[in-house]
Amino acid sequence: MMMLKTLLRRGTLPLLAGAALLLASCQEEPRRLPILGERDVRENPKGGPADTVFATVPAFRAHDQNGKLVTNQNFTGQVYLTDFFFATCPGICPKMNGELLKVYKQYGQTPGLNFVSFTIDPEHDSLAVLRDYAQRLGAPTNANWRFVRTSKDSVFTLARGLFTAAMPDKAAPGGFAHNGTFALVDDLGHVRGLYDSLNPTQVQALLTDLPVLLAEVKERQKKS
Predict the structure, then answer these.
(1) pLDDT at residue 50 above 60?
(2) Kind of pairing, strands 113-119 and 145-149?
């Protein structure tokens, strides 16, 4: 009791209350995923603070397993999750796309979220092959998970833009060397997360990050 009277007399209690409120307000700030990749700081021609321009995913044109044209414009204003695979892959692809299927089963019905799997072997993986692969995997047909093919040059350029290692390699199983990266892309075309599909901890991190990014996009669109 004496301690409380002393704090009131000295005006310390209001200061402590203010600090508590400040701490609470800081804790309520929503978490934001980082924007990955290069950035360019440009002078503002009108004066004021400089503008920071973040790298975006390279533009692409592809066709999905149902023969529909797919470009980056399809995902304007939406979030999408990608991986790179090939249908005859004897190594990591079954495990990788199995993990992506688990993510799809949990979040696949979320508005504004898409899944895109790019084949790195377009010479073999025709649309019919991709359609069969999707069906055997158990991916829903005519849904928001697209299995797509584009030219070989384009897909490797795109893989680099999505920070995914993928390249022809005669010494590698199946003739291609690649890793199991999932790349999470926001509504503005920025890469916001990279996850090793073969690491359960990182797949769990993806499951945690997805609603964070979706909430950010929803809030941004409400303000626009």
Answers:
(1) yes
(2) parallel
- Tell me if 161 sits within 8 A of 38, measured CB to CB: no
CA dist 134 and 201 (Å) reads 26
- Tokens coding 204: 């769990």
Whole-number Å distance between alpha carbons of 18 and 40: 39
Residues 6 or more apart in contact with residue 103 via CB below 8 angstroms? 81, 115, 182, 203, 206, 207, 210
pTM (predicted TM-score): 0.83
DSSP state of 75: G
User: Which sign does the torsion angle of CA 80, 84, 85, 86 carry?
Assistant: positive
Residue type, position 122, single letter: P
Q: Both tokens of residue 153? A: 């040059």
Is residue 9 predicted with pLDDT exceeding 60?
Answer: no
Cα gap 11→28, rounded to integer Å: 27
pLDDT tens figures, 166-190: 999 999 989 999 999 999 999 999 9
